Amino acid sequence: MIKRSKSEILSACAKLCKNTLMETLAIEFIDVGDDYLTAKMPVTSRVHQPDGVLHGGATVALAESVGSAASYIFLDTEKVMVRGIEIAANHLKSVTGGDVFAKATFLHKGRTTQVWDIRITNPAGELVSFVKLTTISLPKKP
């Protein structure tokens, strides 16, 4: 459950992006609920393949960014650190411009491992990519 307001959570996520790949890719966290986090990324030439379509690597970076940020929101990161251990993506539709949106929701929330369902869509709601991210929670050392 969310213990802070939406604006507080989204502001905290924005602060995490400073001087990171997320800032380079202009990823912005835009919505959060009790069991999901959503981000958007503009599709410009900076994330294109040479032939002018969205690069799969940029799509995966968006997915891992939103899934990892969701882990920090929904897990007790005072006690654990979260690391990605596996990511798999299926790219289904090409995008040449506009924005894409990534929504991360839990498939599995275990004590040690978490599995995220991350759907990348275009503004029309069409599925662009389906991504599965597995994270692990490791105890922080005192």
Structure in words:
It is built from three helices and six strands; from the N terminus they run ααββαββββ. Helix content is about 25%, strand content about 40%. It has one domain (about 5-140): Thiol Ester Dehydrase, Chain A (Roll), CATH 3.10.129. The mean pLDDT is about 95. It is of the alpha+beta class and about 140 residues long.
Strand order of the largest sheet: 1-2-4-5-6-3
Report the strand count: 6
Number of helices: 3
Kindly, what is the distance between the CA atoms of the first and last residues, rounded to a whole number of angstroms?
Answer: 26 Å
- The CATH superfamily appears as Hotdog Thioesterase
Based on secondary structure, the structural category is alpha+beta
Write the H/E string, N to C: HHEEHEEEE
Percent range for β-strand residues: 35-45%
Q: How many structural domains in the coordinates?
A: 1
Largest sheet: 6 strands, antiparallel
Mean pLDDT: 93
* CA gyration radius, whole angstroms: 15 Å
Percent of residues in helices comes to 10-25%
